[in-house]
Amino acid sequence: MFASGEDERDPRLQAISAAIRVVPHFPKPGIMFQDITTLLLHPKAFKDAVDIFIDRYRDMKISVVAGIEARGFIFGPSIALAIGAKFVPLRKPRKLPGRVISEEYVLEYGTDCLEMDVEAVQPGERAVVIDDLVATGGTLCAAIKLLERVGAEVVECACLIGLPELKGECKLNGKPVYILVEPRQ
Ligand SMILES: O=P(O)(O)OC[C@H]1O[C@H](OP(=O)(O)OP(=O)(O)O)[C@H](O)[C@@H]1O
Ligand SMILES: Nc1ncnc2[nH]cnc12
């Protein structure tokens, strides 16, 4: 679901959207790259984005905020600290030193993989997955599977940007995806 659908008048969303740079043909021809690094240069818009997520999740009994490497690491820890949850990094292969579980997922070309420390999350914990952007949803699906394999309940996924590839479905593996803004062209 889109945050903008809940309150069209929320002026914070417009400023957040405006602060995200769109870079045509990066990293390859035809891709309109949504660059959240420019949002980070605007402390008010950056904080507003984090605050919207904090307000949404603070009373949902969430004990795990799982952030997806790399850009989920930018937003996840602040949200986790504010709501009193732990932050669990979901990393690309061979980065975590402990015992891990892995989930492969399909990209436009080839595959990639996410890993999670098996001891980071306990059965029954309530989790939110954070990333900057959802396109095909493959990355978020892998994250949901990792958390469910250790017995966590994934309450929702949250992203700043949702690409039209989602086709308005806004659900992944039956889980809702909360999205702040649509991409600018
Ligand atoms: O919905 P999907 O089609 O799975 O795509 C979304 C993912 O793509 C981007 O990460 P990327 O794989 O480029 O990795 P990076 O953040 O490490 O550059 C983005 O940050 C998401 O994690
Ligand atoms: N258009 C896009 N911009 C930024 N990150 C992405 N990941 C997948 N598609 C993307």
UniProtKB/TrEMBL annotation:
<comment type="subunit">
    <text>Homodimer.</text>
</comment>
<dbReference type="InterPro" id="IPR000836">
    <property type="entry name" value="PRTase_dom"/>
</dbReference>
<comment type="pathway">
    <text>Purine metabolism; AMP biosynthesis via salvage pathway; AMP from adenine: step 1/1.</text>
</comment>
<dbReference type="GO" id="GO:0006166">
    <property type="term" value="P:purine ribonucleoside salvage"/>
</dbReference>
<dbReference type="GO" id="GO:0003999">
    <property type="term" value="F:adenine phosphoribosyltransferase activity"/>
</dbReference>
<dbReference type="Pfam" id="PF00156">
    <property type="entry name" value="Pribosyltran"/>
</dbReference>
<dbReference type="InterPro" id="IPR050120">
    <property type="entry name" value="Adenine_PRTase"/>
</dbReference>
<protein>
    <recommendedName>
        <fullName>adenine phosphoribosyltransferase</fullName>
        <ecNumber>2.4.2.7</ecNumber>
    </recommendedName>
</protein>
<feature type="domain" description="Phosphoribosyltransferase">
    <location>
        <begin position="38"/>
        <end position="165"/>
    </location>
</feature>
<dbReference type="GO" id="GO:0005829">
    <property type="term" value="C:cytosol"/>
</dbReference>
<keyword id="KW-0660">Purine salvage</keyword>
<keyword id="KW-0328">Glycosyltransferase</keyword>
<keyword id="KW-0963">Cytoplasm</keyword>
<dbReference type="GO" id="GO:0044209">
    <property type="term" value="P:AMP salvage"/>
</dbReference>
<dbReference type="GO" id="GO:0006168">
    <property type="term" value="P:adenine salvage"/>
</dbReference>
<dbReference type="InterPro" id="IPR005764">
    <property type="entry name" value="Ade_phspho_trans"/>
</dbReference>
<dbReference type="InterPro" id="IPR029057">
    <property type="entry name" value="PRTase-like"/>
</dbReference>
<comment type="similarity">
    <text>Belongs to the purine/pyrimidine phosphoribosyltransferase family.</text>
</comment>
<keyword id="KW-0808">Transferase</keyword>
